[in-house]
Amino acid sequence: KEAHRDAAIIVADEIIELIAWCLCTSLQSLKINGTSTDIMLMRTKIAQLTDKHIEYILECLHDNNAKIKNRRNYLLTCIYNATSSFKASKQKDTSYDLNEWEKYAMSLGT
Q1: Between the CA of residue 104 and those of 7, 65, 91, 98, 109, what are the distances in Å?
Q2: pLDDT at 79
Q3: Which one, of 65, 57, 59, lies nearest residue 82 by Cα?
Q4: Average pLDDT over residues 22-37
C-alpha cells in the first residue's frame, strides 16, 4: 500500500508539473493523442480540473497494464481527457447501480 501511495505522489507531481508547463509555455499548440491541439483549448481543459479528476487520472494509471511509450504525452492526453472521461465513467457507474437496483427490486416483487 505504501509503495502504491508513494508512486501516486510521484505521478501527481508529474501531472502538476505538466499542468504548470501548459499554463506557462509560449507554444501555440501541442500534441494531444497524436493530434495538434491549440494550447488555449488545453488551458481551458486544465481550468475545469478538480481534485477528483486528478484522482481519476491516478486510478486509471494504476489500473493500466499497457506499456506507456511516451509518459509525458500520455499524461498530457490524460489531463486533456480527464473531465470528459471522468464524467462518462461516473455516468456508467450510476447506470450500472440503477440497473442493479432495478434487478434487486424486481426480485423482491416476484
Answers
A1: 39, 34, 20, 10, 9
A2: 94
A3: 57
A4: 95
Q: Does the pLDDT value for residue 100 go beyond 70?
A: no
- Grid cell locating 74: 500520455
Task: Please name every residue paired with 35 in a beta bridge, in sequence order, or none if there are none.
Answer: 32
Q: In this predicted structure, what is the pLDDT of residue 86? A: 74
Three-state secondary-structure class, residue 32: strand
Q: Which of 10, 23, 6 is nearest to 76 (CA)?
A: 23
Residue 48, all three cell numbers? 475545469
pTM for the whole structure = 0.73
Contact between residue 93 and residue 86 where contact means Cβ atoms under 8 Å apart? no
Can you tell me the distance from the alpha carbon of 12 to that of 34, in angstroms, rounded to the nearest whole number? 23
DSSP H helix total and E strand total for the chain:
4, 2
